[in-house]
Amino acid sequence: MRRGQPRRRPPNPYAAIPFATWAQLSDAVPGIADVMVRYVEQIACILRPGSVAGTELDLRSFATYLTQCHPEMTTVAAIGRPQIEGYKPWLAARPGQNKPKLTPATIAHRLGVLRMFFVRIDEWGWPEAPARVPMFHGDVPIQDHALPKALDDAAASALLSAAQADPRQLIGLTVEFLLRTGLRVGEYTSLAADAVVLIGDTYWLHVPVGKLHEDRYLPLHPHLVELVGAYRAAHVTPGHALLIPYEIGRQLDRHAVTRFINKAGAAAGLGHINPHRLRHTLATQANRGMSLEAIAAMLGHKSMDMTLVYAKIANRTVAQEYFTVAAKVDALYATPAQLPADDLGPNMARLNREHRRLLGNGYCTRPAVMDCEYETICESCTFFQTTIEFRPTLLAQRDAACAKGQTRRTAIYDQLLTGLDNHEAS
């Protein structure tokens, strides 16, 4: 191919016959097209442009099906169950954009949009609405809610190393930026030139209004500040509106970002990596020590429900309690096979002494090989133990917590004191 000639893409073997346009539908079935167009105009007043465009496409899909399979249908009011039941297999047989079949999520979305069309025009009292809504909730397939796919520690490290070793500066910057910030691709490509802000002695990143129509600030790792500065000094002209554009000044897009990530991924021996997996990777790593509220703020989640999916992946409480029980079960299973009966008592006592670490109000029995993520909540940890000699200290701590209105900590100390009293009474 000669330089400067447009790149010719091979034909898509899965390309489907396109849906009819509104002009074509208005000629073929004006009684249906006009109602759908009015409906799109109404929802455009309340929904975001992307949602409106998706609805318009989904309605054209159904209208195209009617013209092909039910040409006798000329009004929305005449649509009934036979047309809906025929549409579902017709839709399932259509190819996807790059796949032999539409994905379950796309099918569910198109059927869900169609159902809401009938529900709304019925609720709005439009005379064109069918006598009864021809679709039911059960017509929309139930979706699997798979957990987000994150890179494990070894894969994330290999990806970052490969990206940093790439001779193209933009690839290393892009991969490390997304791994360390968890930005969505659209947020990354839209960062303004003044997005890096120094507040006090900490650099913050101003993330623009994006998918959820909110902007936010998040702390920026000093190394990223250096990488951005080096890239801009080498490739970005002064006064450019974007923080990280192409070397030639054009704005990046998601396809370019995907190529950058997968070039580094190929060098690291990894399979295809969707850019969003880097966001999932940071969120999963953050769940090891950050609160869910902090993770939600960092990722720009509007609802904690969006953040809780990461708690399913790396729930700290579940992990702590599991390994507490696992350590005890392992000791139960392993002790008879490893220790003679005569030595069981002394050996177990020795192990307990090695693991017991003196605290101000008791002992920590966590094995030294297990990391502790707790800092000031030892009393609520399953490895915490205390004895009657610490009762005065626990009483003082309980009174201090009560005076400060710390009801949860007061309850913890009450429970510990009650346990000591019951043990002494027995």
Describe what you observe in this structure.
It is a single chain. With 426 residues, this protein is mostly helical. The chain folds into three domains: 22-139, Orthogonal Bundle (DNA polymerase, domain 1), CATH 1.10.150; 153-313, Intergrase catalytic core (hpI Integrase, Chain A), CATH 1.10.443; 316-425, no CATH class. Helix content is 54%, strand content 5%. It is built from 17 helices and six strands. The chain has helices spanning 22-28, 30-43, 49-69, 81-93, 104-123, 153-165, 169-181, 185-189, 222-235, 254-267, 276-286, 292-299, 304-313, 316-338, 344-355, 391-403, 407-425, and strands at residues 196-199, 202-207, 216-219, 357-358, 363-364, 384-385. The strands form two sheets. Strands 1-2-3 form a three-stranded antiparallel β-sheet, with no helix packed on it. The longest helix is centred in the C-terminal third of the chain and has 23 residues, at 316-338. The model is unreliable at 335-355 (pLDDT under 50).
Compact description:
By secondary structure, the chain is mostly helical.
The domain count comes to 3
Output the CATH topology of the largest domain.
hpI Integrase, Chain A
The count of helical stretches stands at 17
Name the beta content range: under 5%
**Rg computed from alpha carbons, rounded to a whole number of angstroms:** 30 Å
Distance between the termini: 90 Å
Low-confidence stretches: 335-355
Give the integer mean of the pLDDT values.
78
What fraction, in percent, of the residue positions are helical? 40-55%
Can you write the helix and strand succession as a string?
HHHHHHHHEEEHHHHHHHEEEHH
CATH H level, superfamily name of the largest domain: Intergrase catalytic core
Number of β-strand runs: 6
Strand ordering within the main sheet:
1-2-3
Instruction: Name the CATH architecture of the largest domain.
Output: Orthogonal Bundle
